[in-house]
Amino acid sequence: xxxxxxxxxxxxxxxxxxxxxxxxxxxxxxxxxxxxxxxxxxxxxxxxxxxxxxxxxxxxxxxxxxxxxxxxxxxxxxxxxxxxxxxxxxxxxxxxxxxxxxxxxxxxxxxxxxxxxxxxxxxxxxxxxxxxxxxxxxxxxxxxxxxxxxxxxxxxxxxxxxxxxxxxxxxxxxxxxxxxxxxxxxxxxxxxxxxxxxxxxxxxxxxxxxxxxxxxxxxxxxxxxxxxxxxxxxxxxxxxxxxxxxxxxxxxxxxxxxxxxxxxxxxxxxxxxxxxxxxxxxxxxxxxxxxxxxxxxxxxxxxxxxxxxxxxxxxxxxxxxxxxxxxxxxxxxxxxxxxxxxxxxxxxxxxxxxxxxxxxxxxxxxxxxxxxxxxxxxxxxxxxxxxxxxxxxxxxxxxxxxxxxxxxxxxxxxxxxxxxxxxxxxxxxxxxxxxxxxxxxxxxxxxxxxxxxxxxxxxxxxxxxxxxxxxxxxxxxxxxxxxxxxxxxxxxxxxxxxxxxxxxxxxxxxxxxxxxxxxxxxxxxxxxxxxxxxxxxxxxxxxxxxxxxxxxxxxxxxxxxxxxxxxxxxxxxxxxxxxxxxxxxxxxxxxxxxxxxxxxxxxxxxxxxxxxxxxxxxxxxxxxxxxxxxxxxxxxxxxxxxxxxxxxxxxxxxxxxxxxxxxxxxxxxxxxxxxxxxxxxxxxxxxxxxxxxxxxxxxxxxxxxxxxxxxxxxxxxxxxxxxxxxxxxxxxxxxxxxxxxxxxxxxxxxxxxxxxxxxxxxxxxxxxxxxxxxxxxxxxxxxxxxxxxxxxxxxxxxxxxxxxxxxxxxxxxxxxxxxxxxxxxxxxxxxxxxxxxxxxxxxxxxxxxxxxxxxxxxxxxxxxxxxxxxxxxxxxxxxxxxxxxxxxxxxxxxxxxxxxxxxxxxxxxxxxxxxxxxxxxxxxxxxxxxxxxxxxxxxxxxxxxxxxx
Amino acid sequence: xxxxxxxxxxxxxxxxxxxxxxxxxxxxxxxxxxxxxxxxxxxxxxxxxxxxxxxxxxxxxxxxxxxxxxxxxxxxxxxxxxxxxxxxxxxxxxxxxxxxxxxxxxxxxxxxxxxxxxxxxxxxxxxxxxxxxxxxxxxxxxxxxxxxxxxxxxxxxxxxxxxxxxxxxxxxxxxxxxxxxxxxxxxxxxxxxxxxxxxxxxxxxxxxxxxxxxxxxxxxxxxxxxxxxxxxxxxxxxxxxxxxxxxxxxxxxxxxxxxxxxxxxxxxxxxxxxxxxxxxxxxxxxxxxxxxxxxxxxxxxxxxxxxxxxxxxxxxxxxxxxxxxxxxxxxxxxxxxxxxxxxxxxxxxxxxxxxxxxxxxxxxxxxxxxxxxxxxxxxxxxxxxxxxxxxxxxxxxxxxxxxxxxxxxxxxxxxxxxx
Lengths: 949, 419
Ligand SMILES: Cc1cc2nc3c(=O)[nH]c(=O)nc-3n(C[C@H](O)[C@H](O)[C@H](O)COP(=O)(O)OP(=O)(O)OC[C@H]3O[C@@H](n4cnc5c(N)ncnc54)[C@H](O)[C@@H]3O)c2cc1C
Description:
The complex is a heterodimer.
Chain A: E1 15-24, E2 27-33, H1 37-43, E3 50-51, E4 58-59, E5 72-75, E6 78-82, E7 93-96, H2 122-125, H3 134-142, E8 162-164, E9 168-171, H4 175-186, E10 191-194, H5 212-224, E11 228-231, E12 234-240, E13 244-251, E14 254-261, E15 264-267, E16 272-273, E17 286-288, H6 289-299, E18 306-311, H7 314-325, E19 329-335, E20 343-347, E21 354-357, E22 362-364, E23 367-371, E24 374-375, H8 379-383, E25 389-391, E26 396-398, E27 406-408, H9 418-446, E28 482-484, E29 489-490, H10 491-499, H11 505-512, H12 525-535, H13 540-543, E30 555-556, H14 557-561, H15 574-579, E31 583-587, E32 590-595, H16 599-608, E33 610-614, E34 619-624, H17 628-635, E35 648-654, E36 660-670, E37 673-678, H18 683-696, E38 704-707, E39 712-718, H19 722-729, E40 730-731, E41 744-750, E42 753-760, E43 768-774, H20 778-788, E44 794-796, H21 799-808, H22 843-852, E45 856-863, E46 875-878, E47 885-896, E48 901-909, E49 918-922, E50 928-933, H23 945-948
Parallel strand pairs in A: 1-7, 8-14, 9-10, 9-15, 10-11, 15-27, 17-23, 18-19, 18-23, 33-44
Antiparallel strand pairs in A: 1-2, 3-4, 5-6, 5-7, 12-13, 13-14, 16-24, 20-21, 21-22, 25-26, 28-29, 31-32, 33-39, 34-37, 34-38, 35-36, 36-37, 39-43, 40-41, 41-42, 42-43, 45-48, 45-50, 46-47, 46-49, 47-48, 49-50
Helix pairs in contact in A: 4-5, 4-9, 6-7, 10-11, 10-12, 16-21
Chain B: H1 10-19, E1 38-41, H2 45-58, E2 63-66, E3 82-83, H3 90-110, E4 121-125, H4 128-143, E5 149-151, H5 153-159, E6 175-179, E7 183-184, H6 187-200, E8 204-206, E9 211-217, E10 220-226, E11 229-232, E12 236-238, H7 244-250, E13 258-267, E14 277-280, E15 285-289, E16 295-298, H8 313-326, E17 334-345, E18 352-355, E19 361-365, H9 375-388, H10 402-405, H11 412-415
The structure holds flavin-adenine dinucleotide.
């Protein structure tokens, strides 16, 4: 393959001493360090990089940068890599995407033959019948999908994130952005300067010899300025409310997310050169002027041998100079600033062969360069609420009204020689610095004990105008060409959409998919608007752009996700459980023992001797202050003011709609000190709930809430011999039934550990004590209890045994026996609802439910055949009706080892829930069984003798 | 049978291509008349489907659909287009089952390919509790004759090989609810198909026409005020989803609805690797791959009321984290675009369909995060209700009065993330 590499160019980025080998579609290639994938391939003579999405047309270099729609390639396991931007790395395995069986011979290119029939909305109008074949069509059509390949076995690439708090964040490291950063820094601001390319410089980088001195000077100043943090190969991905700014730092394929709270954002994103719409505008060999300048000046690659240039601006003129310097034969220059001069079409089969100009004149060439104007990258401004305004004189959109904390600088605003651009950047940067420092001072005044900040001049700087230069309105030529290269949408497609009634820009965009592909309209968005306006006989101003949505440039999911931060929680006794044969179960954020081999035996042992369970996942909240009882009275449905020191009470919490959302106990340990437990799953929710009420409705109440779920390990010793056990290890507490009765709580010393909390409560229905110990001593206390109880028959029990025992006692589980509609009356805790309290969460709804009667109720159910356990979720049906109508469902069910029969809780429609009623339960296998409703929820020991003893 | 100005088919497409002639407009421009028999507010899927069925099933064609911006610009053009019927309550699953039936025949009925791809809908269970809910749903669905069952992790892997079913501590996969008829549809196509069908049958679609007031005399509706002047009408149907309380206010009707943003995002396309729609309620995320190869992601509604349709950075971070938890192998895919739409949330995650205390003023609202799949059946039933004056069985339990009677429906468990 011939080399298209030029001799050394003055500003080239490649290191000719550092050869890099890589593969392209299985063939060995070579390039230099500093090359992009595309420049190395172009130097090696590659002309076709991809096939287009719909018509499978061969595509070559168009812009030679990040926004090039034709340069999406697969690199190893990474799809959709932008070869115009990604730097070459040794050993890269680069392949063309979606071009089965090969890039040269694409079977689906047959599609091109029927291309003229593939009008927009083609899919909507075809494959309508027969319906039986539609899924076959769909399967075939999916094979035509764009994009690279994902191998689901790819190892995850999560990368760390960081926060940043720059005073001024500058998006864009061209001359305006660099000048703005310097000026803001001189003003005293800390600056973050973000540049998409691998080097600072913007258009100066590829601006040829004249641009080199000013660029070198700016770079040297930035280098010397410690207050400016420079991120290259990075992009500002989005501007969100309150100047919350996402920045993606790239290191080749690896990305990191930086989340910055910028006090002021300066958008200096420059201009993006737009293509021209004309026949053949996508042929390999047709390039934008910027592409030519980049290839020659940055990578020393000759983009062709004989060129026609169609130019309407200085960027095209500069490309001509570059081409001439590189020794490319300039066959013809069509100056589109003169109305007599026209670019009609590009001609060629698979690549450019000739160009047709005004009057049908054809010029042979293998390179056609167009320079017809700009699409303004106003995306970040748009995200800040700006609506860009079209300026017909400049033939582009310009920023409109910006919020206080966002400024725009340089080419995005206007034009001029480098000095004016730098000057504009400087003024904007200075003003940005002032605004940022004013904000910083204001924030500091709000921070107690902060260093006093410098005084900030209140005067704002008037930023001189940077007028946009006049430019002919060149969007589409006299022939039809592509408006959106990545979506394969032509100008005629947009016009056809308008004619079919899709006559607003949004509808036409959706119908044709123009601007919806990976380039998102950054390149030719304004062309789509112009073509649409022409077809609808409207102005571009009136047509307007569609909204830009974040991100500005696509971000990998790995960067967004960051390292996995979702914690897994283990109790301090976890290792003991593992060592002792526990089978683990996931319970919310916790991993806890489900059982130690035989849950039934665990139940029987607990009921006859003593058992111990690790209850550390329980939510725990320490409450202090004079007004805690008021808070309890508000969040629980029952009454709390009478709770004396040393007492424990059970309560149910309801949301404002009366639906049960948590339950648990709270102990009053001292006059102003309380200890609340919540369900394991509800720990975070309840804490938020308390704080929300305190902050929004009761800010004057004296209550402090501290979540101490992780601070205490908890264990429950349950069973007839639990008191005897605890007496052996607890001190400074009288455990006798008289002085430490059921529903009491004490602070005590257990196994030598002070400040433990003992609550005498009984979820299992047995005499039992819940012992909360400072987490660091959890294992010690656990082990001490086991040791002390070895002669009492102590054995650990897991979650499953606890669930069986609570079901035997008829205690409901929030979320299992209740659902999103279960109000307190339905749950059967009507006795705990004190509607004569002044107010509490859910009161009006519960008052109403109490009066009108609950439509459903929770009942205890026993299958007539006690050997059958109906699986949870079994439906309860009204067998009297013809089509079985659901009247309820089994919410919990187990075989009770204590009773030797199956037991259930169920939610049923109220009329069916009377004690003694017989219901029909439909098992998932389809068989019906009969079950009897009990008078109460309790299957075992309804009098509670075991509990209170 | 309506006469379309031009029927769509592969053959007609070839003919047009060969002669390069243009297609006629899919729907026409009309002058706004001073009166209509029925005025529908909102040119989303619900409004347009209602207009279509009024004409198709009941011959009522003097109908105006008033849309303040462009058709499908609200939730109907922003949703993630999941269609399924495995709801939790018997009334919910019967209703959505009818919608799936309609979707299955819609391409032919509308003569517009809506690209309904029934590649299956899978709701993952990461713990005991959600597996229990899946069983509950499967049992309800079974009784309602809906194809829905609980499957094992191995079956999950077979249907969606990209999912990580390995044993890991935080979000292991214990099984899933599998619903083969579920899938995705091209949302815009459904909107346009109904618009074209309604237009062909005589309804007037007025884009860029905002309703600014509703005229009520006594307790009857008599007309609406619009940005293009007043329109007299005895019947007004409110199909404005996220804006529905603003419209109801104009008629003096209060709805138990709050408007919340719901965010979504899409990636760059890759070759097809994921067939079913995957939902994880525990991780608050769902994902599907479109025919174009993009992954479409969604989550649950934002936790606050707002009319803003801007996306947030935090949303994409959480989303990516959760998606990678399910499919760790796709960390190199790139998020391309994010957006938000407005959702009209009711307390019980059920819609509000029916008459209101103001005579002639009907609502078809409360569609929250799940109303796209309901568009066809809601349109059909609302049309029947308006045409016959009687409330059809399928929507009987969705009336506004249920909030006074306390007879709420209970779809929260199945609709909160699943949509
Ligand atoms: C991100 C997202 C994802 C979703 N995913 C799904 C999903 O996967 N599956 C699913 O079934 N549902 C989903 N939904 C919900 C679904 O999109 C909506 O429920 C559905 O589109 C509602 O349709 P509609 O026609 O009632 O309302 P819309 O489509 O919102 O239409 C209402 C219309 O009313 C117009 N309007 C408002 N005020 C006025 C006025 N004063 N005058 C005239 N016109 C007015 C609006 O401009 C709008 O076009 C999702 C929603 C969102 C936002």
